[in-house]
Amino acid sequence: MKHLLDMTSLETEEIHEILQRAEQFRTGKVIKSPEMKFVANLFFEPSTRTRFSFEVAERRLGYEVMNFETSSSSLQKGESLYDTIKTLEAIGANAVVIRHQDERYFEPLLNETSLSIINAGDGCGHHPTQSLLDLFTIQQEFNKFKGLEVVIAGDIRHSRVARSNASVLKRLGAHVTFSGPSEWQDERMSEFPYITMDEAVERADVLMLLRIQNERHSTKCNASSSYLESYGLTIEREKRMRANSIIMHPAPVNRGVEIDTTLVECERSRIFKQMENGVYVRMACLNLLLQNAQEGMVV
Amino acid sequence: MKHLLDMTSLETEEIHEILQRAEQFRTGKVIKSPEMKFVANLFFEPSTRTRFSFEVAERRLGYEVMNFETSSSSLQKGESLYDTIKTLEAIGANAVVIRHQDERYFEPLLNETSLSIINAGDGCGHHPTQSLLDLFTIQQEFNKFKGLEVVIAGDIRHSRVARSNASVLKRLGAHVTFSGPSEWQDERMSEFPYITMDEAVERADVLMLLRIQNERHSTKCNASSSYLESYGLTIEREKRMRANSIIMHPAPVNRGVEIDTTLVECERSRIFKQMENGVYVRMACLNLLLQNAQEGMVV
Amino acid sequence: MKHLLDMTSLETEEIHEILQRAEQFRTGKVIKSPEMKFVANLFFEPSTRTRFSFEVAERRLGYEVMNFETSSSSLQKGESLYDTIKTLEAIGANAVVIRHQDERYFEPLLNETSLSIINAGDGCGHHPTQSLLDLFTIQQEFNKFKGLEVVIAGDIRHSRVARSNASVLKRLGAHVTFSGPSEWQDERMSEFPYITMDEAVERADVLMLLRIQNERHSTKCNASSSYLESYGLTIEREKRMRANSIIMHPAPVNRGVEIDTTLVECERSRIFKQMENGVYVRMACLNLLLQNAQEGMVV
Description:
The structure is a homotrimer of 299-residue chains.
Chain A: H1 12-26, E1 38-43, H2 49-60, E2 64-69, H3 81-90, E3 95-100, E4 116-122, H4 128-142, E5 149-153, H5 160-171, E6 175-179, H6 197-203, E7 206-209, H7 225-231, H8 235-239, E8 246-248, H9 271-294
Parallel strand pairs in A: 1-2, 1-3, 3-4, 5-6, 5-7, 7-8
Helix pairs in contact in A: 1-4, 1-9, 2-9, 4-5, 4-9
């Protein structure tokens, strides 16, 4: 592995390798880079948890972190992403974590740089470390994927999480169903059937709520309490969930929209646990990529 | 102590403990955190000296610093301060330094997080590390508080320094008087009498000038040379100050308004000394909070 | 040397000293500051390569880096550069790297601070580390300056590179010529003759293209393909360049304007090599300045 771009490109074996390394970091394994290595974080869209989660992961591994504020960079002077990446390479960066508004922004870069690229979100495309931390959280809970009932609910169409997760969970043996308003259904994923939220809560082992991506909608949607009643997780619905089933959400949560605010930290919720797990999973990915880069291996 | 929020909550003994540790750092004591600890700086209002002073203090103690640029964070997506703090906690932060425009923004957070919160300014409320560095600077000069004549002069009403300092200095035995335009007097602090600037310079051991907080006024005030003549420290007034008396100002100074520009670095001025002391005092606070947090002590 | 402000103030011997140290860093020399030293980066204009190049250099030398985002600082409250510098000094910075829109912004600071100031660009004035990395790149290629034909081509008037480089290259024995549109000629540099781009490609050992400084023009210039045809490096012109001659550009490149986009990474191009060299040269400068500052030497 040289780059981490989407879940589709990851072999099942590589996924298990990453989850296993993440578990080692969770239980206290310490690895510090013996050489000075530089990781640059380029976020072209606002982010808190992903950006800082990567930063914590990078520092725990002993890397030097360069935070690239896009508002004060030469991108202001019209510089292309390609030239920015070649510049980072020239000044000695080893890897770059990128969030960008364009889907598959990384295509033109792949064969042109010695840097490892870690995709931290490409438009409505993919967000592989989010998928991996979701897998890690599910595995931690159930110790398997095979046969699990997973319902992914909400703004399927604009979510980079929904698509990545549905495919990989199916590949790992889970049974995946979608739920959500018809206008946000994604015709590219027609293999997954839709059910109502009332059905979802009774079926799911894992109820994976999605954030309404207001920032990616051309018109503001109806992100209100009527959404909660029709499509979200109300207090009443949570009561009908199966024993031992869990609630997930990639956050930030629109409280009172996707989920009743009192449920965000309820016993079933793994929302903050997901964030904690994100650090371990990102450590695993960075460690794997930069170690391989060092050994000269290329995907 | 788990949090540092305002001066009122600090026991006199704790204040002396902080000043004593600050003095140890000033005279060269080196303490480096043996474990990796993360401190996040969240500044919702512009700042130079406070932000960088904290950053230098954090690094001198060997902490990992995470600078949270509020303009590029998920607060842009409408995330609440509560959820931001819980996120920082989940990804492994140990303490958070916050400056925020709302008074007592920290109230809803206190019993909800394992993080130590250090208030670096809440609206027109408090700014405890500024008070502590002011105390440290006074103690360095006079080696006592009891019986000292302290005049706090200027924009009393909008200052988070005035209120904190007046109360704590009185508690420590100093005699505190206010000076300033009647429209900026603060009825919540009616126990402290007002005197003119002409009286102030003749009485004060410590003349503590305040910054005119233009950014917190609903209407722009008369921050001009006529202010200097009526309420500020002119060259002429400085000449009438008592031997060994000192001038303080939390900075940034509006030169030619609160004080004649030539006096900013005059012999009596401790303005840049205050900034230097700020680093030692913040090291003392961070060291105390993070050490206690480690021992599981809670206020 | 206490400060690094422009090339004019550097003795020829000091230039050779810097280039020699840069070569040592390029070939793997490791120097880590035994004490904790703080370097602040103050960029008042957008920058990618210069800012990050300095940051990598600072970290490779083991310094603590403080990145000062001017948009969130007290400069927003009207604080002067002088007071900002004095603040950085008070809180313990050892050196400050500044890019600023005003020519010779540093004049009022020089005798007022114990900090080392490194000029990373002053308006249309100077950018000494860019000149030094250009010299380093030329020396690496030709192992001499004497007798080399150097053509500096493009927006001479608004470039801080053109003036610095022309003078210092002449001092070191090179033969320097200019090329570019008549409206961007610089009457302050009348000693250097102008030639056409067609002549330039046939004469130059070093063809140094300049970025069109759109951001410094009061009216937008004709930065288009017609510029490329008249004044830029086309594919056709590159073919007429002398054997072993090289192409340089300080970047970011306006692709298709100053140079045909396919030539940016051609065999003759040293554009990304210049960026790599920038790190070594900046390490050399910082190492020299901070070491001397330590020994109490002052220019």
